[in-house]
UniProtKB/TrEMBL annotation:
GO terms for cellular component: membrane. Coiled coil: none annotated. It is found in: Membrane. This is FUSC family protein. The chain crosses the membrane at residues 73-92. It comes from the Bacteria. It is a multi-pass membrane protein. The keyword DNA-binding does not apply. Keywords: Membrane, Transmembrane, Transmembrane helix. The keyword Transmembrane applies.
Amino acid sequence: MMGLADPDDRAEIVQSRAEKHARDVAFVLRCSGAATVSFMLGQAVGLPHPVWAAMSGIIVSQERLGETRDATVSRLLGTLVGVAIAVTVGTLTTPLGIAIAAKVAMSVGLAAAVARLYPPLRVCMWTCPIVFLTGDPESSYLLVGVYRGTEVLLGGITGALLHVMAEAVIRRIFDHGRQ
């Protein structure tokens, strides 16, 4: 009969569609879970702005595991660069009475130069204002930088781990079905 596919072909099509649907559902659950778990972990360890942990958990969550790994590494390294720049600029300019807006301008300028040379680290540019704008007068720039870095680290690792776990489950289900 013309038009009927081989039963093996039909089974492969059904399995392919099921795997795509499973990956779609896993992406939604990973993103939601990364935001929620990162935020809750940030609160549990006493981080002052766990929103950055939640956001990092979402930001690193990509379609493919390799992309999530790359996003996680870039986000963590870029954050470290941005924290180092902001802490250095803040520490050196505070005794001079320089306004926060000028500190942001200087630090983002330096970070932009780094990002221009190393595009995967461009998160360093927005890390600088975050360090300046989330601190309080009683906290040193170093302490604020450590907090922001910890929040990003916590969120990034959480998002990446959830992706690894989801990928393992999907592979186990669908690779087993192909054998």
